[in-house]
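Person: I keep going back and forth on a fold encoding question. Show me how you would write down a chain together with its backbone fold. Please set it down just below, with no commentary around it:
Helper:
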Amino acid sequence: MFRLDERLQADCFEIADLELSTLLLLDNRSLPWLILVPRKHKARELTDLDYEEQQELLSEINLITRVQQKLFTPDKINTAAIGNVVDQLHIHIIGRYKTDPVWPSPVWGNLQDEPYREGELQQRIQLLKHALRVN
């Protein structure tokens, strides 16, 4: 049975369930930071998914990357599955800008937490849901 890691639950907002993954928005307004979490019990690595699931995950990464590019026009998209802190398989898809607070350094350990304000959060969630055509 799949269960979202407690740390991801605490740090993120659920946006939508895609075919394989749950899409999350990290609670940091500094950058458009989305996370895909395949709903596979005990999956820690990409290789824990079968071939068809890997293909579906790649398709979802492509979808979310296109959404990031269309909505936020970043200079670069960082895509990573690191899992050193949260070992549940999850993919970060982060829009980066040459003007962002830590460019060109990695965001991990460098980007200050800046939680969304309530109205701003709801607007961001609705924007993403609309782009994905989900309720």
The mean pLDDT is 97. Residues 6-132 form a domain with the HIT family, subunit A fold (CATH 3.30.428.10). The beta strands are 12-17, 21-26, 33-38, 76-80, 91-96. The chain is about 30% helix and 20% strand.
